[in-house]
Amino acid sequence: MTGRPISPRDLASAEEPIVFVIDDDVSMREALRSLFRSVGLQVEVFGSASEFLLSKLPDVASCLILDIRLPRLSGLDFQADLAKAGIHIPIIFMTGHGDIPMSVRAMKAGAIDFLTKPFRDQDMLDAVTTAIERDRKSRTDAKIHSDLHALFATLTPREREVMALVAAGLMNKQIAAEIGLAEITVKIHRGHIMRKMAAKSLADLVRMAETLGIRRAAS
Predict the structure, then answer these.
(1) Which residues contact 45 (CB under 8 A, 6 or more apart)?
(2) What is the value of pTM for the model shown?
(3) Could you say which of 101, 122, 142 is where a domain stops?
(4) Same-domain check for residues 43 and 133
(5) Which residue in 51, 68, 151, 158 has a CA-CA distance of 20 to 30 Å to 102?
(6) Which residues form the domain of 199?
(7) In sequence order, what are the residues at sequence separation of 6 or more whose Cβ sits closer than 8 angstroms to the Cβ of residue 112?
(8) How confident is the prediction for the chain on average, in pLDDT?
């Protein structure tokens, strides 16, 4: 890989989804730029992977249109390098020389689609729509996890222990007996947990525990 590696922290702020295109064919880059702009999408085009690496990824839903055959670094190798760097942008491959092994490798590595040139404009737009929606959902899920972890970090060790037992379905009396506390103390801990986790109900707290992967400690 050449150029300055992009870190997940290399994020600029933006609001609208954006499509990145990497292809060494100028006419293809411009055709795709025109296509995406015609449907109101932001687009940035690059002639090589190294050019792309010099840019900053905006912190919005996005996807990457990647030619399978690029100068100095193949699209498949670049896909692997991005994954190793922790950059999980959805990728749509395109090629004029595609074969089954290449497409299988690309899809197994997480590619959204593999389009053979010449492709229909609608096929590309459909693939981009799928990719952007997948990235949007991934970002939403990541934020939910991040927010929950931040809330969970505010709990004391005892509150975390009680939360795990509550999520396992134990009643206050059972929790008190298991960890050697008075039942009223367990109730107080539960109140603190509900408030700190911003849980609106017991069911809400249980869902949070499942999302966080909180399990009752083995006895």
Answers:
(1) 20, 21, 22, 23, 29, 30, 32, 33
(2) 0.72
(3) 142
(4) yes
(5) 51
(6) 154-212
(7) 63, 90, 91, 92, 127, 130, 131, 134
(8) 87
